[in-house]
Amino acid sequence: MDVSLGSTHKSHTLFIRPKKTAELKWTDSVESVLGATCMSSLTSVLHGYCVLFWGVTFSDIKNENPFCLFKQVALDNTQNCTQPHIIFILVDDQGFRDVGYHGSEIKTPAIDRLASQGVKLENYYVQPLCSPSRSQLMTGRYQIHTGLQHSIIRPTQPNCLPLENVTLPQKLKQAGYSTHMVGKWHLGFYKRNCLPTQRGFDTFFGSLLGSGDYYSHYKCEGTGICGYDLYEGEEAAWDQDHGMYSTMMLTRKAISILANHNPNQQPLFLYLAFQAVHSPLQVPARYLERYKGIPNLIRRKYAAMVSCLDEAIHNLTMALKRYGYYDNTVIVYSSDNGGQPLAGGSNWPLRGSKATYWEGGIKAVGFVHSPLLMNKGTKCRSLVHITDWFPTLVTLAEGTLEEDLNLDGYDVWEAISEGRPSPRQDILHNIDPIYIKAKNGSWKAGYGLWNTAVQAALRVGHWKLLTGVPGYSDWVPPQTFSTQRLTHRYHNERIRWDRGKSLWLFNITADPYERVDLSQRYPHIVKKMLMRLAHYNKTAVPVRYPAKDLRSNPQFNGGVWGPWYKDEKDRQDEEHMNNHLTEVSNKKRWKKKFKHRKLKRRVEE
């Protein structure tokens, strides 16, 4: 017999499924099926829970004995596992303003509740694009130290997170964790060794690329270069694909992982990397109904996607409580970069957007929620960077951090949990030696210490230095999303690039919106920071940004995006296998031919 839950925000529904019979809704006959004692206990467990499971049922649990349900529901919250369970939620392209507690018109009650009961990270930085943030999360190292300092990893490139880098899941696995990834990878897949299950995850369900259709999971990288992108482990997940909306599908999978793991026996690391709210802007119609008051269709769709995401966070949190994880769990929530105004995102009042080194591109929504926090309901204003999660979480997991890891991140748990000063005093946002588009950049403008044509950004204490072309630099106020004509909008914030600038200095503490450039007023600080940039640059490894490989076309891989590249060793192994198969085939053919001749002789005799 399977027992499953379904509910809405207004009412509960219990489904009882005897083996090989149809589902029965909650009726008086339920008590006769379960028994009065079981019914009473189950009712007490369910009381107060209000969850949308999006199709997840207790039939997803391996144990089909209904009387073992109470172990899964965790009536006994005693934890035998001292290491905390770690849930890392990475959201895609959520703008700094696009959360309720930052004043957005978008309703995010679940996220707001978790953040208010945890610690809000209000001085938290990520990278301006997908792959860079994910690479630094996985390795605890700056882009200049992994060779991924330029742009993103594109699906047609023979490129991935360098294999010599130890990853966060690998370290957690060494510490005894069960490691699972659900969602968007975007760290390369040209070789099988690059896939998530080869980089420390026990299981993987999700997409390899940076974006795709939320329902069909197809992605095109140009005319005739289209393919399917949904994986279970190291194979295309055709059987798992039921046309479900991505946010719901990934949440369902994450909850299923929680349901099938015993939280008392082994610590769990779940990396849930949502596709939302990255373009394309797709969302079930019922979420759009909540935002009829937003006249701009792009913003309305984006808001609806955020609401669906918020519901997913609610469902995941309830599952953590239901299956006995919550009391010993650390939940980290983070966006991977700033929002994209052209796709509905808002970073107001910060300057700039996704793909820029202005605050709007790199200052992220982030918080930590856990019963294990010392100072709950607080704000952490200490400097925290996405590279810090590697040493912080490994240390929290009672793992080891060897010196040869050469980490750029710091253990910031005490700063977050107890409000102590952060060990981090600076952040190298990046140095991209390929992106040198600043026409007026020169060594002279950099006092002979640095070529200001190079795109770079550095934070030291209160100060932030930018060189080169940092990217789209407008402030985009909320009124911009209205349907009024441009001349009627409050939009006098445009910046003209005819000033010929290639260097800026801001005091971010005093001027968080980057409105007053202080580079001319404090040249001595500029020089010190340029020297710091030059010092970092000496430690940089060569950029990895290979040309497009035509063999990457999914048409050559059964219509699926996946590994295509074979190095010399792979080719030798494949050639050896082909030779072996050919030899076996020839032997079989020879035996068959010999047998035929022998039979022919007998007939002739």
TrEMBL record:
Gene3D superfamilies: 3.30.1120.10, Alkaline Phosphatase, subunit A. Its cofactor is Ca(2+). The keyword Hydrolase applies. One of its GO terms (molecular function) is metal ion binding. It comes from the Eukaryota. SUPFAM superfamilies: Alkaline phosphatase-like. Belongs to the sulfatase family. Transmembrane segments: none annotated. Residues 84-397 form the Sulfatase N-terminal domain. This is Sulfatase N-terminal domain-containing protein. It comes from Periophthalmus magnuspinnatus. Keywords: Calcium, Glycoprotein, Hydrolase, Metal-binding.
